Every structure is written in C-alpha cells, then in structure tokens.
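chain below, 50 aa
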Amino acid sequence: MSVLAFLIPIALGMGAAGLAFFFWAMRDGQFEDLDGAANRVLIDEDEEPD
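prediction:
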C-alpha cells in the first residue's frame, strides 16, 4: 500500500507536466500550420528557377 502512495503522486505529476507542455506548445504556435510540412516535402529544391 505504501508503494501506491508513492506512485500515484508521481503519475499525477507526470500527467500535469504533460498537460502543461501541451498548453505551452499550443500557446507558442506549434500547431498553427499542420499542412505546411506535408506540402514542403513535395517541393523540389534541386531545380533552379528560370
């Protein structure tokens, strides 16, 4: 039973840290352009413009 008293706060702390990092990433704009990376894969940078 003493192991649960040790593991439950650790699990709650890790969950709270993950949630805090998620909200930080949303506020920082990490999820603004989800299609941009997918479209940049298709651009061929080897060709020189005319």
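The two ends are 73 Å apart (CA to CA). The chain has a mean pLDDT of 88.
thats it, cya
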